[in-house]
Design goal:
The chain has about 140 residues and is α/β, with parallel strands linked by helices. It is built from four helices and eight strands, in the order H-E-E-E-E-E-H-E-H-H-E-E.
């Protein structure tokens, strides 16, 4: 069992405020002989006649002194999880959730923006103090 991120409950609450139903906490996926535990799985019904949107969310805190070290680990984990999700649940989108202050600083660097674009990382930017989602990026 992996340790929950410090902001796990915060992001969960923020998703629920936007009418997402958390279906898995954590979302467990097995790809071949490898077991993955992604922080959250959620679903939102868009309309009674339409299929629901499904997402998986990997929550990151970026609290270590080196944001780049946290980013290396987060990106590697994200890419591994996305590979598994694409194979097992191709209708589910994977997002990386990052705190607002980190998004406004480290994620504005040219290197970080280039990496996010190149690797097509979908982001959820959350405000940990108010337990709300500030921005979704695609």
């Amino acid at each position: 069992m992996s340790a929950k991120d410090i902001f796990h409950e915060t992001v969960k609450q923020a998703l629920q405020k936007e009418n997402w139903v958390v279906t898995d906490d954590p979302l467990k996926i097995k790809f071949g002989n490898v077991n993955f535990q992604i922080d959250l799985g959620a679903e939102r019904v868009l309309a009674a006649q339409r299929a629901g949107e499904k997402i998986a969310v990997e929550i990151k805190s970026f609290l270590n002194p080196s944001a780049i070290t946290d980013f290396y680990a987060a990106l590697g984990q994200f890419l591994s999880y996305r590979l598994a999700i694409e194979a097992i649940e191709p209708d589910r989108l994977l997002y990386m959730a990052v705190p607002l202050d980190t998004y406004q600083t480290f994620f504005q660097f040219e290197f970080t923006q280039t990496a996010i674009e190149r690797y097509q990382v979908l982001l959820i930017v959350y405000d940990p103090e108010n337990e709300v989602i500030v921005q979704w990026t695609k």
